Amino acid sequence: MADLNAIPDDIRAMSFEQALEELKQIVGRLESGEGRLDEAIEAYERGACLKAHCEAKLREAQAKIERITLGPDGAPRSEPFEAS
């Protein structure tokens, strides 16, 4: 996984959707075999940073989600969401 401290500022400024779209484009180019080897390596490295950024954004969103449940007394309460 890419070091979060090594993620370029332009990627850090991206929304999840922007980063995911660029990552899809990179994957498409790599899968098609377009370009030279050095370009593919650079694209792969950028893709790793984009992936790490997307994962961090998802973790941030998940941390903000709370599950609302009813307590034993019937009163609503919230608790952290845990993905299964």
**pLDDT below 50 for ≥5 consecutive residues: which ranges?**
none
| H and E order | HHHEE
Structural Rg: 19 Å
Helix-and-strand structural type: mainly alpha
Tally of domains = 1
**Estimated helix fraction:** 55-70%
Q: What is the β-strand count? A: 2
Strand percentage lies at 5-15%
* Spatial separation of the terminal alpha carbons: 22 Å
Report on this model:
Strands 1-2 form a two-stranded antiparallel ribbon. The longest helix has 28 residues, at 37-64. With 84 residues, the chain is mainly α. The protein is built from three helices and two strands, in the order H-H-H-E-E. The protein has one domain (4-80). The chain is elongated and about 65 Å long.
List the helices and strands and how they pair.
Layout (H helix, E strand, L loop, with lengths): L8 H4 L3 H17 L4 H28 L1 E5 L5 E5 L4
Antiparallel strand pairs: 1-2
